[in-house]
Design a protein that fits this description.
164 residues, 6 strands, Rossmann fold
Amino acid sequence: MAGAFIGMSELEEARERRPRRAPRRSLVAYLDSSVILRVALGEPGRLREWEQIEEAVTSALAEVECLRTLDRMRVQGTLPPNEIADRRETVFRLLEGMQIVELTRPVLARASQSFPTPLGSLDALHLSTALLYKERGGPAFHIATHDLQLATAARASGLIVLGA
């Protein structure tokens, strides 16, 4: 699946254009930055269900968070420059295989509303994106995160959580 930058209003049309695959144990999942970074950095504790994700969805925010994390690692000297370049390339390749949902006005409006549990601004944007995507319909939908606060809020909002 080629990555695409799409708004929430275009999701149904994008789903219709996707080729149909034979039934198998596969997942449709919203991935937050923690999941993407753990894979890109080759860290232990990668999402167990990673190989089962057939359709990955994330926010445009994930690219910013991932690249800012890598830049912070570069400035702090955590990784050498050639390793940073490799990890940046990995982030770009991972994102190319995902549906990217833009930070639209509906996402921002939902993120500014209350949630059942405490949640920071960036996590509120991730959760809002996932909730609005799920509302557009489709198969069973999961949210994948290694962030306990986001996982708690997602569960309290009725989402199935992978990872945390």
